[in-house]
Structure formats: structure tokens, C-alpha cells
């Protein structure tokens, strides 16, 4: 979804300075759960913020090297700092997927971009494949003119072989769901070296959006966070 009108276009430009992009949005309907905007009044609109591929990685790495000491959850911390700064400049409230209580980011994303989950649970994007993420959102107390998202082509429907369900040595993903403990045990074991070095084998087996695939060091970073290595 392309945003070109002010002020949304200006927000997109501000986010682009750190490799982030707008990932669609919508106006809340009457009767939906009330979320507070920047002043505490009810929010009327939300714009999602995220990434396509690993575009934010160089910006995040430069920020990380400037930190005087190790930081818990550094990528979440960096994302929050960047998005909060943009929110303050444009009269919005920034929220994050890691905020408690958890906000329905995946439901928001499906509504904002018309996406559906892949067999791995990650939303399948018609261009980015599985190589994208949502880093936060901006809540506004005024309605914003946001183009309504059309239902996106769901590439998983056309994928007959489903390599994403066949590449993991321990079958962590299946039609029955995600075997979390089996995955962790494998990643921590001697056979999990390829996963630790280059990311989830099932995710990497997906043929879509290959040009946006995260580099091995980025995938290794995420695997460390996921498996608490």
C-alpha cells in the first residue's frame, strides 16, 4: 500500500530514514474496544509500522554499537525509540507488539493489508513472502484518510508442495500447529547448528519473496532471541 498524501506521506518519509515503512491502517469502527490516543482521548485511526526485508538492519546495528552497555530486547527497544520519535512529531501515540497487555497486531495487520497467515503462522505477503515484520503502530485521535485494503493474493493457496512443512528435521510445523518444545530442543542440540547459523529451515524453504530474504546474520540474531541461546 502506497501512501503519498500529507501528513501520511510525511510520516512514511520520516520512517524511511530508519528503513521502516508504513504497513497500512484503518479507522476504528463504532463499538470497537477503545484505545487511548496521545492525550488519553479515544483513538480513531491506526497506522501500522514495519519492515520489508532487512532494510532496518544497518540502522539498528549503528544504534546498537552506540549503546554503552548491553540492552535486553535491543531490536524492540530500537524500534520503540524510532516509532515514538515519529509519533511525537505527528501527534500520535506509539504502541508496540511487545506492550502489555498485548494488542491484536496480527488482526490489525490482516485488516490493514488484507493478508492471511501462512502454515507457519507468519502472514504471507504477495510481494515480501514471509520476509517482513510489524514493529509498531501509531494511534491518532482524528480519522485519517486511509485507502481500504483489498484482499491480497494468498500465495499459500497456490503452493501445492508446501516445502515450509517438510524442511524441518523434527517436523516442528505441521497442519496440527507448531511443536514449540521440539523446535527448541532441536535448535539447542548439535543438529540445530544450521538453524542457529541461518534461521528456520521451514521459513527459508518458502519460495516466495526470496529477494527480501533476511541475510543469515539477521536470521541468526532472531534465532538467538527466539531460542534464548
TrEMBL record:
<feature type="domain" description="4Fe-4S ferredoxin-type">
    <location>
        <begin position="145"/>
        <end position="178"/>
    </location>
</feature>
<dbReference type="InterPro" id="IPR017896">
    <property type="entry name" value="4Fe4S_Fe-S-bd"/>
</dbReference>
<protein>
    <recommendedName>
        <fullName>4Fe-4S ferredoxin-type domain-containing protein</fullName>
    </recommendedName>
</protein>
Amino acid at each position: 500500500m502506497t501512501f503519498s498524501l500529507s501528513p501520511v506521506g510525511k510520516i512514511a518519509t520520516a520512517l524511511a530514514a530508519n528503513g521502516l515503512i508504513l504497513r497500512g491502517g484503518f479507522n476504528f469502527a463504532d463499538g470497537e474496544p477503545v484505545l487511548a490516543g496521545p492525550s488519553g482521548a479515544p483513538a480513531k485511526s491506526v497506522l501500522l509500522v514495519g519492515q520489508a526485508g532487512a532494510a532496518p538492519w544497518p540502522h539498528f546495528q549503528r544504534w546498537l554499537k552506540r549503546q554503552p552497555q548491553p540492552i535486553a530486547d535491543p531490536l524492540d527497544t530500537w524500534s520503540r525509540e524510532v516509532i515514538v520519535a515519529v509519533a511525537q512529531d505527528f501527534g500520535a501515540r506509539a504502541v508496540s507488539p511487545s506492550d502489555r497487555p498485548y494488542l491484536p497486531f496480527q488482526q490489525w495487520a490482516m485488516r490493514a493489508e488484507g493478508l492471511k497467515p501462512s502454515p507457519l503462522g507468519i502472514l504471507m505477503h504477495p510481494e515480501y513472502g514471509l520476509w517482513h515484520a510489524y514493529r509498531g503502530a501509531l494511534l491518532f485521535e482524528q480519522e485519517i484518510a486511509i485507502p481500504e485494503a483489498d484482499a491480497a493474493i494468498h500465495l499459500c493457496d497456490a503452493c501445492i508442495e508446501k516445502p515450509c512443512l517438510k524442511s524441518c528435521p523434527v517436523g516442528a510445523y505441521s497442519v496440527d500447529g507448531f511443536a514449540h518444545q521440539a523446535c527448541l530442543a532441536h535448535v539447542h542440540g548439535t543438529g540445530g547448528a544450521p538453524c542457529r547459523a541461518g534461521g528456520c529451515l521451514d521459513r527459508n524453504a518458502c519460495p516466495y519473496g526470496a529477494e527480501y530474504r533476511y541475510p543469515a546474520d539477521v536470521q541468526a540474531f532472531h534465532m538467538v532471541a527466539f531460542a534464548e541461546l
